[in-house]
């Protein structure tokens, strides 16, 4: 849960079923969910649902690689886009943001380890 | 590759075959490799070899969970231990360190996606 963006007005709205991004898309921004829920879909299988306070799309932003999965609005959503410049600024100015991103990445790793029994 | 610790003298030496940590161990520190190579072993299978400039054990430090895998010295190694206090200090004072940790975590995720075909 991360509240840094809760009062931001530069959000984008998505409707249920709408794709926020698709696997293979070039990286541009990550998103912070300030309202609604987003399904993460990999090879046609839903692997996670992210709610208010979650971030998504951070992997592509960090290593400048294409998206790994689809992100589809599950409900009406409000998402704040964070581009590389804003991301780097947040990491520099808000250590709690950096730690939050790290914890999110570790959660994803733990989830994968659980799901696959591999590392 | 991360050079912040290259001139540090508070390193620990490990001999080939020696365990740096084992899966299930409680988290205490992460390590930065300043010399040598470390094998990461999961369920008896080597999944990665980390060299000079790599970090290991960062997951357990970030989410305070037990170790996910064994880390075994492959060659004579010099590792700098980084406890939570030092880690948080580095994240706050050295944004490049925070970004390096994030990139490392994303690399691990990409590797898992490749290995398992899952996310």
Q: Would you kindly provide a written description of the structure presented here, covering whatever features stand out?
A:
Two copies of one chain form a homodimer. The first copy, chain A, is an alpha+beta fold. Chain A is built from three helices and eight strands. The interface between A and B is medium-sized, with 33 and 33 residues.
Can you count the beta strands of chain A?
A: 8
- Biggest interface and residues each: A-B, 33 and 33 residues
Strand content of chain A: 25-35%
Q: So what's the oligomer here?
A: homodimer
Please identify the structural class of chain A as seen in this structure.
alpha+beta
The main pleated sheet of chain A reads as: 4 strands, antiparallel
Order of helices and strands of chain A: EEEEEEHEEHH
Give average pLDDT of chain A, whole number: 90
Low-confidence stretches of chain A: none
Ends distance of chain A: 25 Å
CA gyration radius of chain A, whole angstroms: 14 Å
Number of helices of chain A: 3
Shape of chain A: globular
| Strand numbers in spatial order across the main sheet of chain A | 1-8-3-6
> Helical percent range of chain A?
25-40%
